[in-house]
Write a structure and sequence with these properties.
Double Stranded RNA Binding Domain, single chain, 292 residues, 3 domains, D-Maltodextrin-Binding Protein, domain 2, alpha/beta, 5-stranded mixed beta sheet, 23% strand
């Protein structure tokens, strides 16, 4: 079995983990499709092309990069165990309150920018791009007072020691799918689908299903200031959501809990409540401001 993935250190580490779980599949690095710098879906397109062309049997993606709708002929066939989905702070401060007004915080995410400014309007949120090593290097040479990353990426690279503190899910609601891996295959490939099913974690699949349902209902994309995070907590599935303007001056936040056997319905119910509270208008304005 051949596993297709991006060529970054994090993507390769994720794919190697899946390969080991599947019993030693071959990892194939696939060229990323061209696209806008901020368009995370381009991370997925090259692997999907390789799948459709028969060059690889299964694609391994960071679930938060996957668009809501998949190409004809492909399906999401597996979700391995999930890492902690929370965002983390890397820097000298041990809490957000320790940062003074004007502290320069690096992130490339509109979602993180919006929530950080909603919590602390006096922060300076500065653009930060590149792979994990590049971002940590920019922090090390003093370009920022701190940076915000997905804790899952640091964990998969063996760099959890870099984490200073984790943000509570109700303060910085993660991106849909953050911490999860998604396995994609051709719909007619029964053998690969069965193999992916054997390595799927039920709780991780339940959480991702709820998050993707909420995202679709909100009409959000990878580059929208929206956070959705579902967690199986005992006998309940809790789903948190956030939608706001990039400047953090207006936002809607909500949480719903219910039957973990109905994850898609719960995700959709959360989205409907947020839309009723004004999330659609906020996201329309957020989208319009990006185009100007």
């Amino acid at each position: 079995m051949k596993i297709g993935t991006r060529s970054s250190a994090l993507a390769l580490a994720q794919a190697q983990t899946v390969a080991a779980t599947l019993g030693g599949a071959e990892v194939v690095a696939v060229k990323t499709s061209d696209g806008d710098v901020g368009d995370k879906e381009r991370f997925v397109r090259g692997v999907e092309t390789a799948l459709l062309d028969g060059e690889v049997d299964v694609g391994v993606h960071s679930a938060k990069d996957m668009p809501g709708e998949l190409p004809d002929g492909l399906a999401l066939v597996g979700v391995p165990g999930r890492e902690d989905p929370s965002d983390v702070f890397v820097g000298a401060a041990s809490s957000l309150s320790e940062l003074g007004d004007g502290a320069r915080i690096g992130t490339s995410s509109l979602r993180r920018r919006s929530q950080l400014l909603a919590l602390r309007p006096g922060l300076e949120i500065a653009e930060l791009r590149g792979n994990v090593d590049t971002r940590l290097g920019k922090l090390a040479v003093g370009e920022y007072d701190g940076i915000v990353l997905a804790g899952a990426g640091l964990a998969r690279l063996g760099r959890e020691a870099e984490i200073r503190f984790r943000f509570p899910l109700d303060e910085l609601t993660p991106a849909p799918g953050q911490g999860s891996l998604a396995l994609e295959a051709r719909r007619d490939d029964a053998e690969t689908t069965a193999a992916a099913g054997r390595v799927t974690d039920r709780a991780a699949l339940t959480e991702l299903t709820a998050e993707r349902a909420a995202t679709r209902s909100l009409g959000a994309s990878c580059d929208t200031p929206v956070g959705v995070c579902a967690r199986v907590e005992g006998s309940e599935l809790s789903v948190r959501g956030y939608a706001g303007l990039a400047g953090g001056e207006e936002w809607v936040r909500d949480r719903i809990a219910g039957d973990p056997e109905q994850p898609a319905a719960l995700g959709q119910a959360l989205a409907e409540r947020m839309l009723a509270a004004g999330a659609r208008e906020i996201l329309d304005r957020a989208g319009a401001s990006r185009k100007t």
